[in-house]
Fold this protein.
Amino acid sequence: MALLVSSVQFQPGLRIVYSVQKRQNPNNILHKRSQSKTRFSFSSNSINQRYRYISPLNSASINGYSVQEADSSEKLGVKWMEFVRNVFPGGNWWRLDVDDIGITAKPVTVVRALHRMWELIAQDGLLIFAAFTALIITALSEISIPHFLTASIFSAQSSSIAVFHRNVRILVVLCIISGICSGVRGCFFGLANMILVQRMREKLYSTLLLQDISFFDSETVGDLTSRLGADCQQVSRVIGNDLNLILRNVLQGTGALAYLLILSPPLGLCTLAICCALLTIMLLYGQYQKKAAKLIQEYTASANEVAQETFSLMRTVRVYGTEEQELGRYARWLGKLADISLRQSAAYGYWNFSFNTLYHSTQVIAVLVGGMSILAGHITAEQLTKFILYSEWLIYSTWWVGDNLSSLMQSIGASEKVFQLMDLRPSGQFVDKDPSG
């Protein structure tokens, strides 16, 4: 029996295979084959059938597939599984890298940020009060429209002419009131937003002017101008867009939920459960957008810092011919900005996927449960129609609240550094000293 069988490949045209036996037979003969492959084989005539040949690795196979192909297929499958696990919410791909920048701004809560904004526009409280009054009237008018719209349709079907005319007149009045108050609300909130941005920039600029000279040695010009420009501009939509739509949809959603619970408690509770799931996803999405917005502002400031340094030292750059290196520095920050924007877009896609799935689930549940209730005689077709309209209103109100709340968190995350700079104490030479001291 052979103790060892091996194959040695010297060159493509020459292969030597040998077998060492327990007993050497004197009748061993040397076989030489001179074909495309030359092979020398030491074998015994008596045990020639026991000769074993081991193929090289590149010809090994498993179930008809080569070993290399099987390994590559397995590696490809592992890579795909790892890719899906990383891209799925909560995976490593969603982690935001903050090692490249030194974030010194303290996290700002939504309540604290809104309080600071109110301090800037408190002297224009009458304008804010008028805007909120118009908002409440608009929300109440719009939330009443589906009720009278459905009543008008079914009164026309039942040939109730007087009821139909009354409902139509109410609808016309509600539409006019809603349109007028909506225009007033948008105008007043826009003015309040303009005042907020103007005073925030004035406050930040005046605070920076009163800092000690050593402060400007540690802070770059590009970073400070980015705070005055891009960061303050991020706050430009807080009052006019975010708070405006959040409060309006909170009022409308609350009214729709109360109407649904009165109309059909089981259906109302099902819709409420879906809205709670949507709100949970909304909070997670909003927190992620806040962190992403904070990083975007930091990367933008770093890119502006690189550009400012390059332009201020352009003569030196031209002498040493480092244009490519400076372009690489700037492109590095632009690449990081693109990565964060990609994650923001993907998160927004997941948010819309969740909303549409839950929204259509609400419709299906309303039709199924409502249809069985109609067959059982618990509700009428008019009540089911009202329920479907108000459930859609509630879901869309929840979506608008979530979308604008995430936008609000983005603005607050982008303005954290601004609030920190606004809180800086002025230099000692500008502080009024107490005469008695």
The chain is about 70% helix and 5% strand. The CA atoms of residues 231 and 415 lie 6 Å apart. The longest strand covers residues 4-11. The two ends are 108 Å apart (CA to CA).
